[in-house]
Amino acid sequence: MNNETLLKNLRCIPDFPVKGINFRDVTTLFKNNECLNIMLEELYEIYKDKGITKIVGIESRGFVMASALALKLGAGIVLCRKPGKLPAATVQESYAKEYGTDTIEIHQDAITSDDVVLLHDDLLATGGTMKAAYNLVKKFNPKNIYVNFIIEITDEGLHGRDIFDKETEITTLIKV
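Above: the chain's sequence. Below: its structure in token form.
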């Protein structure tokens, strides 16, 4: 895909959050109406015929496009959050990070076996958070699971998509 307008508006912040990292700032795409429309239309074209019934937005930047796309597809949205942020009973998944572990959760009544689920987040780098979200959603035994990111980092030796099973359908709008 790599739409030129999106690439042109994507801000790169060198040495953030630590030296040697080139942070891709998706907020510059969110604040631009033209970019928002391009992203929404591209996502819609990818998923309009997949039968998506729920979109799981990953905290927090994943909530933005997940919500817009859910409206356009006529699907519900499920929030995937850090522990203690959701008010009802939850299901959790913990995962390893570079220094320790982290946990994400969703409401235990958020997804059924009749759902077709799209997991959405802003950025694929190492893939750890999304892989945990994928494993979490699999516990609900939905009909199908798709994975999407706005940006995939490929130029820094990161291979986040490699931690997923080969049959997992992963799409990205921008590869940098």
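The two ends are 11 Å apart (CA to CA).
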